[in-house]
């Protein structure tokens, strides 16, 4: 299979200026590759640095060292660790999706508009985007009465399902998932699993962080464990 992403010597160090510029290592010496269409799962204790790896790939964190080589449709092979902010913005709109367990959203945007926006950014027409957004909101069991309301009033589980609907309504080349089943009931987890399987069949490559190991093992192709800042592949 063709390699989509290759992470080499990735390191992220945080500087705490309030404490005399104290250095804290988020992750260090991280190496792994992901093939096109593969789903890689990452496990580890809370605070071990799992989200740091995902955020370095998505570039909400700027890596302190190392390389993240990505096979982009638009740019060819590119190092995400060194890409410009303008390039990363375009990649996020066109090729790389991200699901966070936390919802950050414009306060005057409805749930339906939030999901539609993800499709409109990729050039979909408004009518088609509206239809697909409604179908995805239904898939993730978000009641129709909520579609035209502001998500700041949603429960934690509803916000996460909305995040999932926005990220999974489109076909991205790479999808990053940060605890996609946190705070979800079993019915909602089943909806997530169904959509993940659909995306895998269509060729989306995924990297996911999980605490729910049973769920993870049912969807991923390979598993890595992060411990003491180091990432190691788990035996199959």
TrEMBL record:
Presence of the UniProt keyword Coiled coil in the record: no
InterPro entries from the UniProt entry: AAA+_ATPase, ABC_transporter-like_ATP-bd, CP_lyase_PhnL, P-loop_NTPase
Key words of the record: ATP-binding, Lyase, Nucleotide-binding
Record domain ABC transporter: where: 5-236
Gene Ontology molecular function, alphabetical: ATP binding; ATP hydrolysis activity; lyase activity
NCBIfam families: CP_lyasePhnL
Family: Belongs to the ABC transporter superfamily.
Name under which the protein is recorded: ABC transporter
Organism lineage: Bacteria, Bacillati, Bacillota, Bacilli, Bacillales
Gene: phnL
């Amino acid at each position: 299979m063709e390699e989509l992403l290759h992470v080499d010597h990735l390191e992220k160090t945080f500087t705490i200026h309030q404490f005399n510029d104290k250095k804290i290592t988020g992750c260090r010496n991280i190496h792994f590759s992901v093939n096109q269409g593969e789903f890689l799962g990452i496990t580890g204790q809370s605070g071990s640095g799992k989200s740091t790896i995902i955020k370095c790939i998505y570039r909400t964190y700027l890596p302190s060292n190392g390389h993240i080589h990505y096979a982009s449709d638009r740019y060819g092979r590119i190092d995400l660790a060194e890409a410009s902010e303008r390039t990363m913005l375009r990649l996020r709109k066109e090729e790389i999706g991200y699901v966070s367990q936390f919802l950050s959203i414009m306060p005057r945007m409805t749930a339906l508009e939030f999901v539609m926006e993800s499709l409109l950014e990729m050039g979909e027409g408004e009518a088609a985007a509206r239809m697909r957004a409604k179908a995805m909101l239904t898939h993730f069991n978000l009641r129709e009465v909520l579609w035209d309301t502001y998500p700041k009033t949603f429960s934690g589980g509803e916000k996460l399902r909305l995040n999932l609907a926005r990220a999974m309504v489109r076909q991205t080349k790479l999808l990053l998932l940060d605890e996609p089943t946190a705070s979800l009931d079993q019915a909602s987890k089943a909806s997530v699993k169904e959509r993940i399987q659909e995306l895998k069949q269509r060729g989306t490559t995924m990297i996911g962080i999980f605490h729910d190991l049973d769920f993870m093992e049912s969807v991923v192709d390979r598993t890595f464990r992060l411990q003491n800042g180091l990432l190691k592949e788990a035996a199959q």
